[in-house]
Amino acid sequence: MANPRRKLIFNIYMGFYCSAIMANICICSQFSTSSIDPFNKDPGAFPVATNGEPFPWNELRLPRVVVPLHYDLLVHPNLTSLDFVGSEKIEVSVRDATQFIILHSKDLEIMNVILQSEEDLRYRKPGKRLNVLSYPAHQQIALLVPEALMADLRYSVAIDFQANLANGFQGFYKSTYRTHGGKTRIIAVTDFEPTEARMAFPCFDEPSFKANFSIKIRRESGHIALSNMPKVKTIELEEGLLEDHFETTVKMSTYLVAYIVCDFNSVSGTTSSGVKVSIYASPEKWSQTHYALEASLKLLDFYENYFDINYPLPKLDLIAIPDFESGAMENWGLITYKETSLLFDTKTSSVSDQLWVTKTIAHELAHQWFGNLVTMEWWNDIWLNEGFATYMELVSVNATYPELQSDDAFSDVCFTVIKKDSLNSSRPISNQAETPTQIAEMFDSVSYNKGACILNMLKDFLNEEKFRKGIIHYLKTFSYGNAKNDDLWNSLSNNCLGDFTSGEFCYSDSKMTSNTLAFREESAELKEMMATWTLQKGIPLVVITREGRSLRLQQERFLSGVSKEDPEWRALQERYLWHIPLTYTTSSSNVIHRHVLKSRTGNELISQVGVSILKLNMF
Ligand code: BES
Ligand code: ZN
User: Fold this and answer.
1) What mean pLDDT comes out for the span 329-340?
2) Where are the transmembrane segments (predicted)?
3) For ligand 1, atom 6, which residue shows the shortest CA distance?
4) 10 with 580: CB under 8 angstroms?
5) I need a labelling partner for 455 at 20 to 30 A (CA). Which of 137, 253, 469, 536 fits?
């Protein structure tokens, strides 16, 4: 280099992914009408139920004194009158004595509520009818119990309810399609994430209230019913009605429950581990389902092997829904897709259609582990679902369909979110979200793309093998439970200091004693580094200046729309600092050097004796 003070300026490469972001920008703009938000009410106001009585709970989040264990749910949609009736029995466990049970319910008419104690159930006593209060501003109902429920006991709550099939694309809704003959057909579909399960049945609709679900669906003989689990039996009722009973689910969050009544056809295959995979579409689009079957069989095999954890259900259905708001939804065992995200017509579809279908399938299948098996504790960390699913698209599609060159698009995805993240209006990856509107707004390019990009950066920093072992450790440790950011950082530094009790990547006790300090330090450093990427908004710009035989490293917040001459620029820089993992190689050897840039001031120097070429971001 002729000029010893020549500046090398580059944005930190995080690795990206693009087409999903298009979809998410759409979602985001739909949800961003937050000007009239019934949840932003006066914090001092006392809640009053619809009947004028005081409502006993004043918070958006449910109390944790009563937790659901099992839902027995029966739903009967009427596709002619476009409504449904339902009944459920929720088995709950009471942690502390209480006089009320608070749960979610939105736009449901509650007809009858009966409480039975364990003793009532044992001696087949009828139970007590409960009064119900409704507080629509929080989408909650309160079940008032005449005598306090006792701590450490279980109860059963039976609720009868009914509602119209929703008109939009959320909750339990009506979807229609037209046949080639011009006839309109109606089907009934669920779409619950993030907070719409409460539109279909009263429930504890928060991701950490995991429970088992036994679902029964009534239908007419011209239809089929699908749900998360395989059907165990069909019972004939009077007037030709049929009732399908589905196997009980594994422990899962309410937003992943799904059921559909339709007249669709399917193709099926079996993975190497014996999971039955089926692709469903309306009869006239059935011929476009074959590519999705091939891709999902390949991708499910890939993930089972990559995560070293088998897909835990006996079947997986993927279904193309004619009216579907988002690109797809990862309901456990019954993934719903927009038709264009699943169907592939060998005569008319393009290679870019194939790439989109493959990536969408890869994304939703990744959620069966990241999201379904291990779920974020709360919506503020939805990036643990969406960032991972987006990152895994890159890994799995590269491995199963290298000819699609999906990795080419990844840097584009990073650059797309850098654009947004360089505005002061951006937000941290983990962000407080309480109301349904705020929660819906979390499904944006920051959660999806920046999430995926920082995971890709971390993979390069730790190396692929360690990263993979770390995420396997995370998935095994928190299976059927919930996790937060720190749980991920602990698993990635493999320190085994948390609740972890077994697993092939955990060190033995003797090794732990000698290495505990090192693990703690490694974990603390990783946490500190990743906090700079997840808890503050924005993105750094690294400026590297050659100074004689050294390189001076500096970082600043990368801002678009504010020039350095603007007095505001300095104010916007303050307090922003990242721990930036850098890799570089020089013309003097093939060795890849690593350095974590932690300061802003430019005091960090890398000594480079007599090298003519320096390459950064090597991996
Ligand atoms: N979990 C989401 C679906 C979703 C999106 C629910 C927004 C609630 C709000 C699903 O996994 C998803 O990310 N779908 C994407 C398509 C995917 C290929 C990136 C979508 O719908 O845009
Ligand atoms: Zn997703």
Assistant:
1) 98
2) 12-32
3) 193
4) no
5) 253
In tens, the pLDDT along 98-110 reads 999 999 999 999 9
Give residue 19's pLDDT.
25
Give the residue from 137, 143, 140, 58 showing the smallest Cα distance to 94: 143
Q: Which position has the token pair 């998935």?
A: 475
Alpha helices (runs of H) in 250-333, residue ranges in sequence order: 290-307
Sheet with 593-597, side-by-side order of all strands: 593-597, 580-586, 614-616
Q: How far apart are CA 28 and CA 22, in angstroms?
A: 10
Give the model's pLDDT for residue 236. Answer: 97
User: pTM for this structure?
Assistant: 0.90
Centre of ligand 2 to C-alpha 524, Å, is 29
Q: What percent of the chain has pLDDT over 70?
A: 87
Among residues 88, 193, 364, 441, which one is catalytic?
Answer: 364
Q: Mind listing the domains of the chain with CATH numbers?
A: 16-27+378-616 (1.10.390.10), 49-263 (2.60.40.1730)
Ligand-binding annotation for 88, yes or no, is no
Q: Is the peptide bond before 194 cis (omega within 30 degrees of 0)?
A: yes
Q: 65: buried, middle or exposed (CB in 10 Å: 19+, 13-18, 0-12)?
A: middle
Q: Are 169 and 118 a contacting pair, CB within 8 Å?
A: no
Q: Residues 19-62: pLDDT tens digits?
A: 222 222 222 222 222 334 445 555 556 799 999 999 999 999 99
Respond yes or no: is residue 568 known to be catalytic. Answer: no
In eight-state DSSP terms, residue 90 is E
CA angle 96, 97, 103 (to 5 degrees): 80
**Cα 570 → chain centroid:** 37
Rounded CA gap, 142 and 130, in Å? Answer: 10
Name the residue among 365, 372, 357, 350 with its Cα closest to residue 395: 365
Instruction: State the average pLDDT over residues 476-500.
Output: 82
In angstroms, the Cα distances linking 555 to 327, 451, 461, 565 are 37, 21, 18, 17
Please state, in angstroms and rounded to a whole number, the distance separating the CA atoms of residues 227 and 317.
9
Q: Is the CB of 577 under 6 A from ligand 1?
A: no
pLDDT-above-90 percentage for the chain: 75
Whether 17 is in the pocket of ligand 1, judged by its Cβ within 6 Å, is no
